Amino acid sequence: MRSFLLLFFLLSSVFPIPVSADHALTFGVFAYRPDAVMEEEYKPMAEYLSREVGVPIELEILDQPDLNQALASNRLDFVLTNPSHFLVIRSERSLTGVLATLVRRWEQNQTASLGGVVVTLAEREDIATLEDLAGQTIASPGIFFLGGYQAQMLELREAGVRARDIRRVKQLSRHDRVIQAVLSGDVDAGFVRTGIIEQMALEDPDLPNRLKVIHPQNLSGFPFRVSTRLYPEWPLAALPHVDSAVVRKVASALFALERTDPAAVAAGIAGFAPPMDYQSVEDLARTLRIPPYDQVPMVTWVDVIHQYRLWVFTIVVLVILLIASSLWLGRRKRMIGVEQRRQRRMILGWPQPMLVIRDGVFVDSNRAAVDLLRYTSRNSLIGKDVSAFSPQVQPDGRISQQKLHTLIGRAVHGEVQACEWKLARSDGSEVWVDMTLAPIHEKGEPEPLILCSWYDITRRRNAEQRQRLAASVFDHAREAIFITDAHGTVIDVNDAYAGITGRSRESAIGSTPPLPMEEGSGVFQSARQDGFWSGEFEARRETGETIVLTLTISGVRDEHGDIGHFVGVFSDITKSKEQERKLRLMAHFDALTGLPNRVLFADRLQQSMSHARRQGFRLAVLYIDLDEFKPVNDAFGHEAGDRLLVEVAKRMRQALREEDTLARLGGDEFSAIVVNVGDEAALESLLSRLLEMVSAPVWVSNHSVEVSVSVGYTLYPQDGTDLDGDQLLRQADQAMYRAKHLGKNQSCRFSEGKV
Amino acid sequence: MHRRQFLGLSIAAGLSLGGLTGCQPGTPLRIGIHPWIGYEPLYLAEEFGWLADSVRLVKGQSSTDSLQGLMDGSLDGAALTLDETLRLHDHGVNVVVVGVADVSVGADVVMADPAIQTLRDIRGKRVAVELSGVSGVMLVELLQRAGLERNDIVEINLPVNEHPEAWRRGEVDVSICYEPTASALEGLGANRLFDSRQLPETIFDVLVVRQEKARSRKAAVKDLLQAHFAGLNHLVRNQHDAIYRVATRQNISVDAVRRALATVALPDLTANQRYLAPTGRLEAVVLKLAHIMSSEGLISEVPLNYRFCDASFLPRSVA
């Protein structure tokens, strides 16, 4: 940068002003074109001003950084620069307003407006509109150039191309360099101010043909090619420190400058006009957010509220709603948290086993569940499913895992499932539970939760089993069983009861059970006292036949120890009684004659002897043997012999009195006990009647047979001797033998010494 | 435009009204406009893309086109002078004034042969006037000031854009016209005898919309005014740019645009609110104008019970 000083002295002036070299005024002119050109243009202007103002004028052609520095060091008195740069300076230096606006001249036209030109090479067919500049490299003298950057950027912005869409902006400080860069192809397009092309064309007449103006504006009367809207031309401003008299003088000199003046001609201007409205330049800088309007102005709350009243109100309302809903949600969340904790405590503290299932496996369980399975820690359960604690197969025959899968599948769909389930404990034992699976998730919740509860029913199962067994025993016992109330009225009977008594169950219930005739309901009293009663008795079936029953009645005590019920068990012993009777008969009587045999005879003899001793009567023991029986037997056979024996026995029986006993001792030997023997004569007559009755002819096998008996007898008691039955019988036997010897068919009394 | 023509138009409009269909919400609001410095904001708005899609400018050559469009139903609104608005109302087209584009402060001019020095000198002269337009009102005002009757002069009813030609042919001595015709006549040697500066706040250029459209298309009408004020802002604050665009469109020099701008006052938003207020200036002017026009037979009766102004469409602020 070259600066130079020109000093001119006042030659003639109407208003002489005292001047000295110290008071030289410094004009800073922004160098938007090459220094040489600028110097040539503005030198006459400086001379003119020196002459008119009467003060030496120092002209400094400065580029933007130097101009700013010169201003910062307060070296300049007046500054002539482009409007955008002026705005920056004004904001930094608190300049007074614009003194004058430059009016440019071109050929016959003059204008106080300037604009921006977008140029590219004429052959660049790819760039025809502003939109085509997106993505291109652009040359510009600098961003503080109104016609060299800002004016174009506004048009680009309105065409939808933002600064960031441009690939690169090369800042070249001077308009001429921009044109050169475009011509050399270094850049795709260039931004210059109006008039540059026309001025450069003076030296290079072919230049306009090689360049193409993008987005050309048709503005009649405007002498230059232009791509943008127009803005006021350069302002000339005085720095605040300059004496107002000097400012006035300079202003009047500037306004007095005629377009024909050599100074104006050299500078290519038509003179200076009163300051124009630079508002549009400020608006432009504001829109593009470039200095001095790159900073967003401090906006106070009052401004915001004033401007966005409705928005502020809306946002405040929304924020209040948001806070209110957040508080409400927070409260709800806390309540839900409390609720959840309470629920968890409830589940964990519940005395029955409870577990929570998610995705088929336990995610939580309470202590009771852990204890039921006989584990020590909850962790043993978490993450496993129910089948892990179950036997392979459930009692109903289904595989635990499959059954569980079905149950959980239904529970997930909202059905409550309940069933009995067998669990296997950690120690291998099994436990029956009533398992309930209930969904506890909301519909549409992503993870279905199922509450699983177990109720230990092992004891109940066992009791049921016992009960079933008891019922089965009751039903299938061969003994008749009945249950009565405390008064002996039947309330239940089994099948055997009906079988034995012949009464249907229906008619049996509500009536009395079969009881012994003589005691009747008294047996219940006995059972109440002794705890039981048993006995045998005869009863009648429904059909009327007599049966013998053996019955045991037991009192059933309730929880208070009182007898509330009786249980009776009886069986039909009719047949065994009959059998017993027959057996007894066989042991004491002779099968052929029906007379008591030797055993019974001995027994009766014993009885009769004791009777006789006690009551002081005498008895006689007879020993009777059939005479000539063997020949009959041999002649007519055993059958005839038996019949003979039966006939003889019958006759002898008839001969004896009722109270006397006749017995067959075996073969053809009989014996008899005659009680209440009064005197010998009565006995003698009885014996003779017996002999007589026996000796009557007997028809045996169509033959009349005559038999007789020999009878020996002895009496009891006998003086001086204590005899037993055997001795008595032996005495009678001896007497019988004597009767045989004496010629048979006679009776003979035992006497000592006689054989 | 001839008054007879105007009546003919109105009959045609009446006939075509039957076939008129209401504008669908989707179709843009059609606004008739013609070159006039006061209407330039709308042109600028359209050029810079500030005109919403809900509004479409239908460009005519003169106000006649706009009047015709409003009467035959092809337009929903237009930029017109206040007297044209009264005439429309007189012919049964009810429109409301939704905005004031400009107030003439010298734009409407009486150009006269240099020999005519005072207003009274026009007695017996041939006066070119467009009775159906704003110059009709100017004539009434002019005669009042001059203390003359209408039959004291020779009325030549001629559209304003044809005045220079008639002048050139020597057929008229006085022309009641407006820019840029006035400048053209000046170039032909005419003198400014009288202009609207002497009639402060009398000649208004306004934006009107059919009453039923104002009701049914509120948003579109607001868009129209928003665009107008955006354009106005550019015209006033970016004059260094706008004048070139106006010059290009009207095909006149930049200096002529500057001169034209000097002859109109362009009321901004707050001024508009003031004018259009129920007790504002405009209602009073309408009534006064109606009395004058009625007395001169330009309209059949004074619309006493009709409210012309509606400030409710004005934007709250200019974007």
Automatic annotation (TrEMBL), chain A:
The chain crosses the membrane at residues 308-329. Residues 617-752 form the GGDEF domain. Residues 1-21 form the signal peptide. One of its GO terms (molecular function) is kinase activity. It comes from the Bacteria. It holds the Pfam family PAS_9. Residues 466-510 form the PAS domain. Keywords: Kinase, Membrane, Signal, Transferase, Transmembrane, Transmembrane helix. Gene3D superfamilies: 3.30.70.270, PAS domain, Periplasmic binding protein-like II. InterPro entries: Biofilm_reg_signaling (IPR052155), GGDEF_dom (IPR000160), Nucleotide_cyclase (IPR029787), PAC (IPR001610), PAS (IPR000014), PAS-assoc_C (IPR000700), PAS-like_dom_sf (IPR035965), PAS_4 (IPR013656). Residues 417-469, 533-585 form the PAC domain. Its cofactor is Mg(2+). SMART domains: GGDEF, PAC, PAS. This is Diguanylate cyclase.
Automatic annotation (TrEMBL), chain B:
Pfam families: NMT1. GO terms for cellular component: periplasmic space. It is found in: Periplasm. Gene3D superfamilies: Periplasmic binding protein-like II. InterPro entries: SsuA/THI5. PROSITE patterns: PROKAR_LIPOPROTEIN (PS51257). Keywords: Signal. Residues 41-241 form the SsuA/THI5-like domain. PANTHER family: ALIPHATIC SULFONATES-BINDING PROTEIN-RELATED, TAURINE-BINDING PERIPLASMIC PROTEIN. Belongs to the bacterial solute-binding protein SsuA/TauA family. This is Substrate-binding protein. It comes from Marinobacter nitratireducens. The lineage of its organism: Bacteria, Pseudomonadati, Pseudomonadota, Gammaproteobacteria, Pseudomonadales.
